[in-house]
Amino acid sequence: MKRYAFLLALPLLVGLTACHARRTAQKPDPLRNAYGTEVDWNNSDHLIPLDYEQSQGKRLFYIYCVWCHADSTPAGPSNRYNLTPTPHLMNDGAVLNSMSDQYLDNIITLGGSAMGKSAMMPPYGNTLTQAEIRHIIAYTRAIAEPPYHKPNRPLPQYKAR
Amino acid sequence: MPAEQMGQVPKRLRVIYAVSTVIFVAVLAISPIRDHFAVWKRYQKRYVEFVGTRANSRALKADFQGGINQIWLPKLNVTDRCTTCHLGISEASLLDGSVPQPFRAHPPIPHHIEAWGCVVCHRGQGLATTVREAHETTLAWEKPLLPIRYIQASCGGCHQNSLQQTPRLDRGRELLVKYNCEGCHRIPGIVRPAMLGPDLSNIGAEVSRAWIYKWLKEGRTVLDSSGDVVVDGYEMHPRMPRFRFKKGEVRDLSAFLSSLNSPLAESSKIDPAVVAAWPNRAALLSYGQLRFRQMFCTDCHALAVVRLGQTELIGGDMGPELTKVGSKVNPDWLVSWLRNPQAYLPHALMPRYNWSDKDLYAVTQYMLNTFTDPKLLGDVPKLGPTTASEVKQGRKLFVAKGCRSCHVMQGIPPQKDFGPDLSKEGAKTVSELFFANAKIPHTLTAYLRAKITNPLSVDPKGRMPQYHFGSADLNAITTALLSLTGTPTNPGFALLTVPARRAKFDPAGEFGRIYHRFKCFDCHRIDGYGGTLAPDLSFEGSRAQRAWLVSFLHNPQTLRPTLTVRMPQFNFTDQQANAIANYVDMVLQNPSINRAAVNPESFAPEMASFGKELYFVKYECQSCHTIGAKGGYVGPSLTNVGNWMNAAWIEAWLKDPQALIPGTIEPHRDFTQPQIQALTAYLLTLKQKSSGGVAPLPGDAK
């Protein structure tokens, strides 16, 4: 009988060591499998992991949007304070989180005046592809502060709120 | 044997037979049992359960196919069974980040998954059907999955040209060039330029032995209290890496280098009348400062400033930083250098300016007296007179350390392939790598990172010097190295390689001489060749009016309100300015623009006033462009656009800006033809009165 007990104990031991190994395995670094990263605009020590689409959006943002939708630009002072009404910061979650993806898509594609907003926001529908506009929206959602959560019910397409 | 016992098997044999049968059946059963409990079956069961919770579960279930799934591409020799577990990979509705892996859809990329498979980009073992064998390094398979942060390396395997979607790969390739990796390593796709580091054949005429000693010991002349210099938020290190010198070696090398001191090819004499003409020193230095600023030396050279207690470098990095140049160079050398840089370094990027003796004297005096630090060489020990044995030893060291790989030295032949060939570095298997005692995971990516961060960690006897890269640059350079997978062995892939386009724009004639003398290509790009600091001039003749070009060349004004760099004043002669304008006007034309087709005279005054309304009210162009002092900072100033641009260019630009300059950020709008004409008519009325600084030149009266 003792012999059988030993045989039974063996797989248990093996199983225990396996569990142990798994428990001591390191917690995965969230940036390890990130396609790209962006520095949190409000906290330069914090890096936000970006997936493929968000990284493409980041690239496009720094080409087309940064001039008016950020406080500092690669070329120096921002154009934001030259404009009335002042454009929203791209990470302003308090405002942008309540706008639906479709609404943002519309305002980028058709421009501000088509959506009853300032004509200072030009239409980019001929300049950017549909996919590129979607990428920019994905990037906006990734850097939003407060963070963006996908709403349970769809938000309106043609109104800001 | 008795007859009745014949055919009977002894009992012992029966037992052996029974036991061996059981063992045999058990052994045979192992494989089907393992197959029954295969991991992929569990994933498929979980997928079906998960799909049931989705809104479009019926469509997803209809797409589901049980069993081993595979993508087979015989031409690429690809058999990928990844889709056995990654079941939702091409289901657009499973793209959401909340979908658990391995069921999430692949983000839409320019390549279709069915046509390319998975391992072509992600590496790993496509045939495997267990998690570990497919993704990780195993004894049988040495190419693990490429971590996502380096995935752009796979784009670079085929696309040797630059792609806008792969900024990390592009940055890595830039770094390989910037840090002169091709000095020692063979790297395909990088053409070795005529000069990597400066030619040191006459270095003793430029700097003192003490300065060389200081530079070799600690290659940074600018430091703040924490011992760092920050540029754009990143720690700055000089382009030359740090070498591990033993005691006395720096002394020998500095002796050898400073012994290379022959007379300068270009005169360093300043007319004594010019020197005597200055009433006092203060006036001389303040004029020198004015000219230094007007010449916009900081477009290419950096200067250190202290901001909020942190030392920062402001300015370009095309040339060396100048913060302490007054304590570095020999005053005679500086005069000779500025007069004709190519007489000292034949391949220098520095333009040869048209200096007057007055300007040259004032600017060199300003630099030598202002950009100084008396303590710079304070920590250099007394070196004493140079001895012949030191020089001999230094020369040996120069060869042994591989200095000749980057620096030209007369009398020492070039060292070819001083470091290993990197043309297949990204395709190396783990067994080809040597890890020494480094405590790092045994993978290619970990090896490359360790080698770049600290070469000695994986190769204690290596000759590679020490570089300093931040974590973003380390990722970029690793990505670029991983993209070097060598010539594809599979002919299917060889056909797919997209080569980099390299065509040198090299004009001849009078313009060609000016182009090379003033190094226009340092900053301007023409037909895809040249720098990106300044506007692309490929179609400048279609855009700019000739008279404007000539006046701009004489007195360059910034066209963009926020730009801190500006074209230097080259002091062009009238003949030079006209030669440039002639060439631009004649050759640098866009074939789709016919300047004669749009006649500005035909615009009625009502059109201009309609255009003004469109500009300010309907389209609010002032949000990006300034006219006078008012407007936005995004586009160029339009204050003088009526004198600057051709009517045909403005019309074509308003129709489709990206057709003229691909990638320009000016949005392409749906203007109607009358709107385009009205806006053009209005813009042509915007003319700044001549400042009177430059007299009109003969030949550009129209």
Quick summary:
The complex is a heterodimer of chains A (161) and B (702). Chain A has 161 residues and is mainly α.
Strand order of the largest sheet of chain B: 1-2
The portion of residues forming beta strands of chain B comes to under 5%
Fraction of helical residues of chain A = 40-55%
**Termini distance of chain B?**
131 Å
Please give the domain count of chain B: 5
* SS summary, helix count of chain B: 29
Order of helices and strands of chain A: HEEHEEHHH
CATH superfamily of one domain in chain A: Cytochrome c-like domain
User: What is the 3D form of chain A?
Assistant: globular
Q: Which characteristics define this entry?
A:
heterodimer; A: 161 residues; mainly alpha; Cytochrome Bc1 Complex, Chain D, domain 2; two-stranded antiparallel sheet; globular; B: 702 residues; two-stranded antiparallel ribbon; 29 helices; 38% helix; 4% strand; flat; disordered C terminus
